[in-house]
Amino acid sequence: MKILITTEWYSPVINGVVTSIVNLKKSLEQSGHEVRILTLSNQTKSYINNDVMYISSLGIGKIYPGARVTLFKNCKYLKQIAEWKPDIIHSQCEFSTFRLAKHLAKRLRIPIVHTYHTVYEDYTHYFSPNQKWGKRMVAIFSRKVLNHATYVIAPTEKVSKLLQGYGVKQPIKIIPTGIDLSSFQQENSVQMNNQMRRSLHIAEKDHLLIFVGRLAKEKNVEEVLGYFSRIKHNNISLLIVGDGPHRDYLESYAKNLNIEDKVTFTGMVAPGDLPSYYQLADIFVSSSNSETQGLTYIEALASGLPALCRKDPCLESVVEDGVNGWLFESLEEFERYLDNMLFDKNNYHNLSTNAIQKAHDNYSSSAFAKNIESVYYDAISLYQQKEDIVYVNQSGIL
Predict the structure, then answer these.
(1) 97 CB-near residues (< 8 Å, 6+ apart)
(2) Which residues is 198 bridged to in the sheet?
(3) Structural domains in the chain plus CATH codes
(4) Which residues contact 61 (CB under 8 A, 6 or more apart)?
(5) Domain of life, per the record (predicted)?
(6) pTM of the predicted model, to two decimals?
(7) Strand pairing of 58-59 and 68-69?
(8) How far apart are CA 86 and CA 104, in angstroms?
(9) How crowded is residue 178: how many other Cβ atoms within 10 Å of its Cβ?
(10) SS3 (DSSP) at 60
């Protein structure tokens, strides 16, 4: 099968959507499919790099940090894709590249499968001063976009119910995003851990909590910092891995809480180095409630880190209380679960073992690709049935 994946972001950009697409492309190709990527260039120039087409675009960071848009639709690269004749388009974003996907799908008479990655309700502060109106705009926009898809993929039950609440009528399949977990199985040597801790100014014997993700307002990292500042134990440090528009504020916030000597901000870390940072830590922490699934949670679990995270419907199938971590709703619960994990060695060992097992059983990239592949075939069949009905109606055949 020839599969075209469209997305606003792709390598070298680093985020959860890109990670998902990279892993999907790799697994689909291993299964014998031919996959190409259509994405936006980070400059006003289009170019091709192997099987990835980067379409010229303009930055619109005032709407959302890092966002870009393209107005082109008839460039030579789209013509090349049309001549390649994909069997299906799998769109991953709802903006410029979805418009290109619609154009190609109509021209080639092929279906679009769309993965709804982002809960835009949690991002209304970027484009609407009124949260109620912002959510209404999101519902209308999502319904309008997905009306052009033959099939919709939701990474969690939470997202599926949200889309149904928006009035989306297309078939929705829940498929948790898969990850190539092999790189998260390798443990650091003691020497490497000690060297990394020294370079990060983390005490050698401190327990270490880690947050990994984009530093943006919706990630609610302030709550983690606030709770951490009230921990009674002195032998615990916090490592914050990632970068984003909220970083300067968070660093100032840590200083105001007088915890800057116990909190380390690494900035952006290369994907290949990220497993070493997970292996350096003891527990993964997060207060975000804007995740659709949370790939960094799964990476952490695969690395053997129990998770201590704010309770959210999207995590109910990822983090199980007392099995591979805990979901908290208050400072008191945060402190109690933290003590439970860090200062009971047998309990920590069980949580860590379960974390690895659950991650590999449920979120491998190979299982993910097989589930996606079955949706492709269903979408092609469904699309063809609709095409046949349209043909019959237009022909006046009874």
Answers:
(1) 6, 7, 8, 38, 39, 40, 55, 70, 91
(2) none
(3) 2-178+365-395 (3.40.50.2000), 182-362 (3.40.50.2000)
(4) 67
(5) Bacteria
(6) 0.72
(7) antiparallel
(8) 9
(9) 24
(10) coil
